[in-house]
Amino acid sequence: MSMTVYHGEPNGPSFTVLAALFEKGVDAALVHVDLAKGQRHNLAFAQQAEVAMSVEGEGPVVVVDGEGMTDSVFIACYLDDVGSGSTLRPADPFARWEMMAWCRQLIERTAPAAAYLGLSAQPPTGDAATLAKIGSEDLRARWQEAAAGLNTEDRLADSKMKIAQAVNKIEAQLDGREWLMGEFSIADLESYAWLAGMVELLPSAFAERPRTADWMHRVRKRPAVAKALSLARQPAPAACWAPGPEINRWG
Amino acid sequence: MSDVTLYHWEPNANSGKPMLALMEKGVAFDSHYLDLLNFDQHKPEYLAINLQGTIPAMRHGNRVLTESTAIMEYVNEAFTGPPLMPERPRDRWRVRWWMKFMDQWLAPSFSMIGWNVFVGPAVRSKDPDELKAAIERIPLPERRTAWRKAIYGLFSEEELKESQRRVAVGIRMLEAALGEREWLASDRYSLADVNGFNLGYALPLSQPKLSNDDLTPNILRWLRAIYARPTTKACWAMGRTAMVKRVAILEQEHIGREQVT
Asked: Domain for residue A251, yes or no?
């Protein structure tokens, strides 16, 4: 089995996947792709349904035996299954449910809000020829919106509120705990992945949240995380965003 | 009395996922039916179980679990009985990918259409003040918006058109995946199929122009194979509404493109 990881800057979903890869000591070829320029859509497997239609949008792709895998939490579960070393998921089914439900709510509520704020601060710059290759019509529409500038007042306000709520939830969860699920897990990686870039953009959400600040520091100190962050090509990878998860269409 | 209680509505969409998963695993559970159309899920007795007021929720011993897909993975891991996740790690990834794709992209589009034609009209005749109060009791702001739109018929033409577009894309994707494999995500029956059946059991009736034996033979083969399982029959027999009884369409041997209108 040979594995290739196509990844962007170590932020958002690329962060989760790279850190999980190194945590689990999995051997893989690494290929840097500029997700914020839409370069993923030039790759050979870009039209495979699970790549083109990933709910996560512009995330990393892990290719094994010609099959592209997307969606960082599930890739991390896969790496946890195939890799070595300590597990990235709790063993107890209830604790495991807690972790999966935590990640699910984060993906649904926090990730779209973070992507909205991140892209509003730094619009993506895909060229027209590349964007024409995007297989998902709604992802293409999100690219166009993001390139035009995301500045709808109520969306900005709603996104800021959701980030603040996520930080509050983390602060509460860390009461008496070193990691979100007790033991270190995918929930720590995924939560850090979406929130690291928010510290600068929305400092008020992190003010007087000492447990969250300490936890972020602990995450960064892990050797696997440091290795993932060392792959950055931009001076501030946490400020790099690409169109990704959409804000719930129901309102 | 079982140490598992499931709080659920119809065997349909999110409620049906843990119902069918529990039955496939052979886990006995106390069924606690909540009438979604009577807003039972926002009443204090249920909010004491699940503060968010979403259905389903499952009590196992003294623990309460929410999020239907995460509950299914729990059910699969916490109980003995036939495994509902494949062995190979990449197959497991595919099961999770498809469940998320359905949960977050495809099902909301199906349900927007369903809420517009079924749920909204079904509750609209209630007393206006009662409806207003019922909306105000909904804990999650997103759900409040959804109910307001459904009750007052406020889904825009554009929103409904986008949902219909996604449904068409999703049907094509399901047909293609089921053309490659016997089951949705791997070569064995899994949680992805449990999830998918809850989404698509009435497909040839709800989307007759997009899904039938002529256009989507693989989807129809798949739906019939799931419906043929005794657990599926038992689960859908727990349904009380006409919406769920539409599953009987799958008893027809051939549903051609001209047959349903």
From this structure: no
Q: CA of B101: which chain A residue's CA is closest?
A: A55
Q: Do A81 and B63 touch (CB under 8 A)?
A: no
Q: Min CA distance, A56 vs chain B (Å)?
A: 10
Q: Look at the block and give the residue holding tokens 């100190």.
A: A221
Neighboring chain A residues of B69 at a CB cutoff of 8 Å: 104
At the topology level, CATH places domain B4-78 in: Glutaredoxin (3.40.30)
Q: Which residues in chain B have Cβ-Cβ distances shorter than 8 Å to A251?
A: 142, 145-146, 149
What residue spans define the domains of chain B? 4-78, 89-251
Residues B191 and A50: their CA atoms lie apart, in Å, by 17
Number of domains in chain A: 1
In A16-152, beta strands by DSSP E = 29-32, 61-64, 67-69
The tens digit of pLDDT for each residue in A200-214 reads 999 999 999 999 999
| Domain covering B89-251, topology | Glutathione S-transferase Yfyf (Class Pi); Chain A, domain 2 (1.20.1050)
pTM of the model: 0.96
Residue B173 to residue A246: CA distance in whole angstroms: 20
Is residue A135 exposed (0-12), middle (13-18) or buried (19+ Cβ within 10 Å)? Answer: middle
Which of B96, B97, B119, B163 to mutate: most A Cβ within 10 Å? Answer: B97
Q: Return residues 110-129 of B near A (CB < 8 Å).
A: 112
CA B100 to chain CA centroid, Å, is 13
Q: What is the pLDDT along chain B (261 residues), one digit of tens a residue?
A: 689 999 999 999 999 999 999 999 999 999 999 999 999 999 999 999 999 999 999 999 999 999 999 999 999 999 999 999 999 999 999 999 999 999 999 999 999 998 888 888 888 889 999 999 999 999 988 889 888 998 998 999 999 999 999 999 999 999 999 999 999 999 999 999 999 999 999 999 999 999 999 999 999 999 999 999 999 999 999 999 999 999 999 999 999 886 554
Interface pTM, i.e. ipTM: 0.97
CATH number at A167 reads 1.20.1050.130
- Residues in chain A with CB shorter than 8 Å from the CB of B74 are 93-94, 96-97
Task: Give, for B30, the enclosing helix (H) or strand (E).
Answer: strand B30-33
Q: List chain B residues with CB under 8 Å of A248.
A: 108, 142
Q: At a CB cut-off of 8 Å and minimum separation 6, what does B158 contact?
A: none
Distance from CA of A226 to the nearest CA of B (A): 26
